[in-house]
Amino acid sequence: MIDLSTLIFTPKEMNAVDAASAASGIPSFDLMERAGQAVAAAALRRYPQAQRFVVLCGPGNNGGDGYVAARALSETGAVVAVFEMTDATALKGDARRAALACPLQASPLNAYNPEADDVIIDALFGAGLSRLLSDDIQQLAPMINDTGLPVIAVDLPSGICGLRGKVLGNALQATHTITFMALKPGHLLMPGRTFCGEIEVFDIGIPHRILTAHVGNIRKNHPSLWASYLPSLVGETHKYKRGHLAVFSGGASHTGAARLAATAGLKCGAGLVTVAASQEAVAVNAGALTAVMVRQVENRDDLMEWLGTAKISACVLGPGFGVGERARDFIFALTEKPLVLDADGITSFTDEPNRLFDAFAGGETRLVLTPHEGEFARLFPDIAADENLGKAEKARAAAKRSHAVIVYKGADSVIASPDGRAHINANAPPWLATAGSGDVLAGMIGALLAQGVPAFEAAAAGVYLHGEAAVKAGQGMTAEDLAEHAKLSLI
């Protein structure tokens, strides 16, 4: 069963839902009425002492929701002022009907002058906006933002692309956003997320069967999507059943990143963790590790010998490893193992990415790539440069091309699978942006792979648990603190 709270609809998918709802016999104006009433109720609940509600109405259905909200607010005795982009007689469909049913005399949008105690309802443009705002709206948005007045956005703050989360010129800064039935990508992707304030999702009566029939493959990352794949400890569990994770270290002066990944892997449930290092780095690592083992591996031949004797379940390569031919040699030796490739491992294929992609093309997905924005652009330059794609679409395109699970890192990390699934993560606190946090994430994902979790679910769970670990570690944490909190517990 689909967890409805995780559903994310693109604007195109939401249009299909609206059309299917109308075709099922639900009048579209009834949905607009419920949406506008929900906005009014939220405004009264949030700001019961408001001196004046100002409703800014656009030329489409978002504006129609605004006219309904204005009428509902006025019926409660609140003081309401309506400012519109288009005269009601020039509107069409449900928006026209809503405007004509609103008893308040509207003024032109450019006549609005903010007053000190205004509460603004932004019903100009919703999630379907995909073009730059007109000049007058672009001038209005910063003027309103500068006042610091509370803004309730209807569906999505005007100026934010519902698909990509991008700012289309300027955007209104909302304190609250009221959306309907489900989230849109623009609510979670950056920078759109920062303009939404607190988001509330209202059920306006579209049957869930219609939602599930038209939803695509994008979800809000949440344990309900992958918790059933996580390992559980039982009485007969022993260390080898919990998997053996190999983490590859850089040289003697670049060992810290591997130790962070290894520590996180051990904390996240791997039964055994071994750091593989060159002779010069073995002593450094051994002196700093206790429960994590150390193995000398100088070259590909050493690695192949080790792989032939050790029960290695999954590997992490890249953190502090070094860029170049040695990295590529090791990676090509690991093509049959679940592998998390991060940092230097990714950069080692900047000039020949297809060599990497082809090496992991067959069989089940077993490669997890964890690029930040710069690394993503180096590995997928054409996808990264496509302004028509949002982060979720870019991650999905990259996953399909690379035959790998992509963790496109950032404040709005997107996890994508070659089969088209994508999860947008939203639980990471801002203090997670600290040196070494990516190394910890690589170790956590590696630990889940070592315990038999499929690649996509391991990556999605790792990203979410990484955010939870940062919350528990608290502000001011270091990567070492983060690694200590890297656990499978969701409590």
TrEMBL record:
Its cofactor is K(+); Mg(2+). AMP binds at residues 409-413, 438. (6S)-NADPHX binds at residues 61-65, 126-132, 155, 257, 320, 372, 439. It holds the Pfam family YjeF_N. Keywords: ATP-binding, Isomerase, Lyase, Metal-binding, Multifunctional enzyme, NAD, NADP, Nucleotide-binding, Potassium. InterPro entries: Carbohydrate_kinase_pred_CS (IPR017953), CARKD (IPR000631), Nnr (IPR030677), Ribokinase-like (IPR029056), YjeF_N_dom (IPR004443), YjeF_N_dom_sf (IPR036652). It comes from the Bacteria. One of its GO terms (molecular function) is NAD(P)HX epimerase activity. K(+) binds at residues 62, 122, 158. It catalyses: (6S)-NADHX + ADP = AMP + phosphate + NADH + H(+); (6S)-NADPHX + ADP = AMP + phosphate + NADPH + H(+); (6R)-NADHX = (6S)-NADHX; (6R)-NADPHX = (6S)-NADPHX. Residues 222-491 form the YjeF C-terminal domain. Gene3D superfamilies: 3.40.1190.20, YjeF N-terminal domain. Binds 1 potassium ion per subunit. Residues 14-212 form the YjeF N-terminal domain. Its EC number is 4.2.1.136, 5.1.99.6. Catalyzes the epimerization of the S- and R-forms of NAD(P)HX, a damaged form of NAD(P)H that is a result of enzymatic or heat-dependent hydration. This is a prerequisite for the S-specific NAD(P)H-hydrate dehydratase to allow the repair of both epimers of NAD(P)HX. Catalyzes the dehydration of the S-form of NAD(P)HX at the expense of ADP, which is converted to AMP. Together with NAD(P)HX epimerase, which catalyzes the epimerization of the S- and R-forms, the enzyme allows the repair of both epimers of NAD(P)HX, a damaged form of NAD(P)H that is a result of enzymatic or heat-dependent hydration. Belongs to the NnrD/CARKD family. Belongs to the NnrE/AIBP family. Homotetramer. This is Bifunctional NAD(P)H-hydrate repair enzyme. It comes from Neorhizobium huautlense.
